[in-house]
Amino acid sequence: MKAIGFKTSLPIIENESFIEFETAVPQPSGRDILVKINAISINPVDYKIRQNSAKDTVLETPKIIGWDATGIVEAIGEAVTFFKPGDVVYYAGDLTRSGSNAEYQLIDERIVGLKPSTLSNAEAAAMPLTALTAWESLYDRIGISEQKDKGKSILIIGGAGGVGSIAIQLAKKLSGLKVITTASRTETKEWFKMMGADVVVNHNNLVEEVRAAGFKEVDFILDFVDLNSYWDNLVELIKPQGHIVSITGSATPIALNKLKNKSVTFSWELMYTRSMYQTDDMDEQRHILNKLTELFDDGTLKTTLNTTLKGFTADNLKKAHRLLESGKTIGKVVIEY
Questions:
Q1: Alpha-carbon dihedral sign for residues 293, 299, 300, 306
Q2: Residue 34 contacts residue 76 (beta carbons within 8 Å)
Q3: Cα–Cα distance measured from residue 122 to residue 310, given in angstroms and rounded to the nearest whole number
Q4: Which residues pair with 222 in a beta bridge?
Q5: Same-domain status, 167 and 60
Q6: By CB atoms within 10 Å of each CB, which of 42, 127, 292, 323 scores lowest?
Q7: Which distant-in-sequence residues (6+ apart) come within 8 Å of 60 by Cβ?
Q8: Whole domain around residue 138: which residue ranges?
Q9: Is pLDDT at 144 greater than 90 in this prediction?
C-alpha cells in the first residue's frame, strides 16, 4: 500500500518533510479493524508531532502520522463485535499507533463510529478528533447538561479552529448555553455566525470586551489556544464555582492557586487519554462518535470542513501542514483520496 511519512523532523518547505513509500497492508487481529481510507483531515497535533518526534535523528522506517479518517471496513479481527466488512466508519485514531496518512489503517473498534450518512467523505473526515475533544471538554470534564445549565454562559478561546467550531455548535445547539467566542478578523467573525455563537469579542482586549458585551463573569471557559497567555484573564472572568478546561498544555507551571478563593475547577482534556491508557471506558468514544453521527444526520450539527485538497500525495500533505502552521486556518482542512 501507499503511505506518506517522514524519517526526520524537517521544516515543511523541505522536499523530504514528507515522503511517499510502499509498505505492506497490515492484517487485523483481536479487536482491530482494517480500514481502506477515503479521506483524512489534518490537525495541529499532526504538525507538532512532525516537528518534534524525529529531531536530530533519522528513522530507519518512515513514521506515519495522522489522526482523522473516514473509510470502509475491509477486514476484522477475531474479537471484533461492533463492525463488519463494508461498514463505512470514521475515527480519530490513537497516538501510540501508526497513523491515517496511508491507504489502509488498523484501528481498535472501540474508538470508531459509523460515518454520518448525510456527510460526504471529506465532510465526515473533518470531524472525529475535534468533535470528540469538544464533547469530552463539555460533557466529560465539565459535566454540562441542558437541564441544569441551559442559559448559562461559556467563553470559548479560539473558536475559529476545528475544536472551537464544533464546540460552539454543541454548547449552543445541544446544551442551550450563551456562547461567547474570540476573534479579530472579519472572516473569522462571519464563520462564528455560521457556527451559532451569540457574542464575538476581540481576544486582544479580552476582559474589557467580555464585560462590554454584558458579562461580568462567565460560568465556563474552554481554552483552545494558549493557556499561559490568557491565564490571568481567565482567572478574572470565571465565576465563583465555575469550571475551566484547557487542551493546550503549558511549558511552565500554571498558578492554580489563583482559582482558590473562587473554588473554581480546572481540568485538562486530551482526547487520546482513553486509547493511550486503554481505560475501562475506552468504548465511550465509539458511543460519542455514534451520537455525533445522529446529530449530523438529523441536522443539529454541521461539518466544520472549510478546505478540501484532492489527492493523497506528499505535496498535498505538505500544503495542508503549511496551512495549519500559518495559524490562520478557519475550520478544517481535509485531503480526499
A1: positive
A2: yes
A3: 10
A4: 156, 245
A5: no
A6: 323
A7: 7
A8: 130-268
A9: yes
At 21 the three-state DSSP class reads strand
Q: Which residue has the cell 517522514?
A: 6
- CA dist 82 and 286 (Å) reads 10
Single-letter amino acid, residue 14: E
Grid cell, residue 23, equals 509498505
Question: What is the share, in percent, of the chain residues with pLDDT greater than 90?
Answer: 90
Nearest to residue 132, comparing CAs of 253, 282, 250? 282
* Helix H or strand E segment including 38: strand 32-42
- Per-residue exposure over 327-337, b if at least 16 CB sit within 10 Å of its own CB, e if not: eebbbbbbbbb
- Residue 250's pLDDT band, with cuts at 50, 70 and 90, is confident
| pLDDT, mean over the chain | 96
- As given in the structure block, the three cell numbers for residue 28 are 487485523
What cell numbers appear for 315 in the block?
A: 505535496
The arithmetic mean of pLDDT across residues 240-255, rounded, is 93
Secondary structure E strands in 168-217: 178-182, 199-201
Total number of domains constituting the chain: 2
Q: Are residues 56 and 89 in the same domain?
A: yes
Residue 89, H or E segment: strand 88-91
pLDDT at 187 over 80: no
278 within 8 A of 302, measured Cβ to Cβ: no
